[in-house]
Design brief:
Layout lengths: L2 H7 L7 H6 L1 E9 L8 E10 H15 L19 H14 L2 E8 H11 L3 H4 L2 H19 L5 E6 L4 H14 L12 E3 L6 H19 L20 E5 L2 H20 L9
Parallel strand pairs: 1-4, 3-6, 4-5
Antiparallel strand pairs: 1-2, 2-3
Helix pairs in contact: 1-3, 3-4, 5-10, 7-8
Length: 272
Amino acid sequence: MHPAQENVLDPISGLSSENRAERRLCMMQAYVDDSWEGGTALIVAGYIASVPQWLRFTQLWGAALDTEPKMNVFKMNKLRQTACRDRVESFSRIIEQTISGGFCVGIPIVPLQKVCKDLELPPIYKRPYYLAWILTLSVFRKFHTDTGWEHDLEVIFDRQREEKFVTEAWDKLREKQNGDTAPIKCAPVFRSDEEMLPLQAADLLAWWGRKAWLQNGTFRGTQWFFPWEDRSGGLPYIYTEMNEAGIRKHFKENIIYRKEQSSLNISVRPER
């Protein structure tokens, strides 16, 4: 087995071969222009597939990296020149051949910070990762319902400088959901995209998702944002986002209201 394929199996080591085959892995990347404090939007993107699909993907992707001129790692930011488009498209075709589905989540930074200031929310909510997890969890549940898979989902995130904030937001999400983050049972793990080749596919999707957002300011109406023809045969993509009204509504209903309710101290005198 190729070393890169062994890395795919690492997050589910200890499971039987049968359980491995049923498990779904989600590879995720987060893109934010500049930084979350001064950026336009946080874009979180990823692909979901079964373990056998990811193993097949890794085999094909690794062969594509070894094609002249050879590449150590696929980085969309380094291949954005027009002259590289054909090669980028060839990588995207590997995704189309092997993967179950993809998604992009968008959280606009300025509206988020405005709402948090208006509602006087703690700093953790000013960072866009908590809301990104809220939307991502809804995407996972939709995939879970639409495809009928019943087993747990393992989430692998690209190792990056924002890892602390991603983990902090995940912990807050579990707290607010009372631990109910099905189909995700375990906290996300972080891996290098040089070792975990499927993360490079998520990099491709996140880069084009960010580009589309910066051009349009929204994912509404998006069906396909790559500059090449869709020949995937119906590979499902989910694009979702929160605008200012949605952010305000979520925080009022799920943060402010719950906080007020939990602060009430009501005692009921028993009847005699």
